[in-house]
Amino acid sequence: MKNEMTVEFSSRSENESFARVTIAAFISQLDPTMDELTEIKTVVSEAVTNAIIHGYNNEEHHKIWMKCTIDDSGEIELIIKDDGIGIANIEEARQPLYTSKPELERSGMGFTIIENFMDSVEVTSSPGSGTTLHMVKQLAKTKTVYN
Amino acid sequence: MKNEMTVEFSSRSENESFARVTIAAFISQLDPTMDELTEIKTVVSEAVTNAIIHGYNNEEHHKIWMKCTIDDSGEIELIIKDDGIGIANIEEARQPLYTSKPELERSGMGFTIIENFMDSVEVTSSPGSGTTLHMVKQLAKTKTVYN
Amino acid sequence: IGEIQRFIRDDGSVKVSRSLKEIGNKIRKKKDELTKQMGRSPTIHEIADALEITPEEVVHAQEAAKSPHSIHETIFE
Ligand SMILES: Nc1ncnc2c1ncn2[C@@H]1O[C@H](COP(=O)(O)OP(=O)(O)O)[C@@H](O)[C@H]1O
Ligand SMILES: Nc1ncnc2c1ncn2[C@@H]1O[C@H](COP(=O)(O)OP(=O)(O)O)[C@@H](O)[C@H]1O
Ligand SMILES: [Mg+2]
Ligand SMILES: [Mg+2]
């Protein structure tokens, strides 16, 4: 049986923390380990920060969407989407250490971290039509679902 | 400056807890007192439970929406909405102790609790077109917004 | 001051940022303790049970413990 939620929030930096707790609260129904929880929260941080800083150039009046679907098997499907400037060269953007904003002391490791913590990461993006990350992660063991 | 979020989730009982944490995480940006936080979470519990049990007769495949807007003055605007069966007589439904499901040992105090913890509560509902609660609460003092 | 703090706490007027940070610190300690004990990362329900709090509180407080929240805390803690 699937459970689903979608949250839409303003592109404000304080909402990074909000998004982290929201995903943690939803995922906690699958009783993940604290480490798994930290991994998913880190992924959300990186993706949401990218949407705010890169997608929307720190303009606070835009919207970010996060959708999550979970099922009893412990599979987590996570989609994070912005309507921002988009990415011209996705392959380049996904390279470790690549950043288009070296002046901000960005590490260029966001995508690498995301790929490391998720089982699959699909990026859909083009200039002017925003960026969507479609990610899947299977929790280590099948755990009891607590209601 | 306003900050806004909308979350949509399945009408499953385990999402009552999810909705509570989601609102808590968002509201925490205003650094309320523990009492204020507990009050808002209780309101969310009552409204979401009503949507699930009454609005959707415990059918799990429907959607519930929760929208929250906060600003630096500490004003919280909260909207909780379902597309369920609706309420024929709103005035009666809001009476303390009134419940249409006495067989479930409902207390009939949900609306009363909601009204008690919020500064204003507006109910829009009619049979067949769902129920919307529009609520406002001003936190006790103007507080700094911490990011 | 201990008395006053306890009183403030009891009447629930303590700020969320402060209360969550305290719980957050307990979560961090308990997580390390259980990790050693079990030889793996504890689940969120295992932490909640060990601290006798709800998983909801674990989720919310864990986040709050991350960063200092206010000048108030810097001064008074
Ligand atoms: N949501 C997004 N919208 C537009 N560009 C993005 C987005 N996410 C990532 N990018 C691009 O991909 C690059 C690499 O991202 P990342 O690996 O997170 O490194 P960093 O954020 O440190 O630059 C960014 O510098 C940016 O050019
Ligand atoms: N979202 C809703 N959809 C349909 N009916 C509702 C909804 N919320 C409340 N009601 C009606 O209002 C009544 C009173 O609600 P409440 O005060 O929460 O008491 P209780 O839930 O214990 O019955 C309910 O019994 C139900 O008939
Ligand atoms: Mg990044
Ligand atoms: Mg009720």
Largest interface: A-B, 26 and 25 residues
Structural class of chain A: alpha+beta
Q: By CATH's scheme, which homologous superfamily of chain A applies? A: Histidine kinase-like ATPase, C-terminal domain
CATH fold-level label of chain A: Heat Shock Protein 90
Roughly how many Å apart are the termini of chain A? 13 Å
Q: Count the helices of chain C. How many? A: 5
> SSE string of chain A, helix = H, strand = E?
EHHEEHHEE
CATH domain class of chain C: Mainly Alpha
Give the names of the bound compounds.
adenosine-5'-diphosphate, magnesium ion
How many structurally independent domains of chain A? 1
Q: Summarize model confidence as the mean pLDDT of chain C.
A: 79
Terminal Cα span of chain C: 12 Å
Order of helices and strands of chain C: HHHHH
Quick one: overall form of chain C?
elongated
Structure explained in plain terms:
The complex is a heterotrimer, with two copies of chain A (147 residues) and one copy of chain C (77 residues). Chain A is 33% helix and 27% strand. With 147 residues, chain A is of the alpha+beta class. Chain A has a single domain (2-138), classed as Heat Shock Protein 90. In chain A, strands 1-2-3-5-4 form a five-stranded antiparallel sheet, covered by helices on one side. The two termini of chain A are 13 Å apart. The model of chain A is unreliable at 142-147 (pLDDT under 50). Chain C is an all-alpha fold and 77 residues long. Chain C has one domain: Winged helix-like DNA-binding domain superfamily/Winged helix DNA-binding domain (Arc Repressor Mutant, subunit A). Chain C has five helices and no strands. In chain C, helix 2 crosses helix 3 (44-51) and helix 2 crosses helix 4 (55-64). Chain C starts with a helix and ends with a helix. Mean pLDDT of chain C is 79; it is low at 68-77. The interface between A and B is medium-sized, with 26 and 25 residues. The complex binds adenosine-5'-diphosphate (2 copies) and magnesium ion (2 copies).
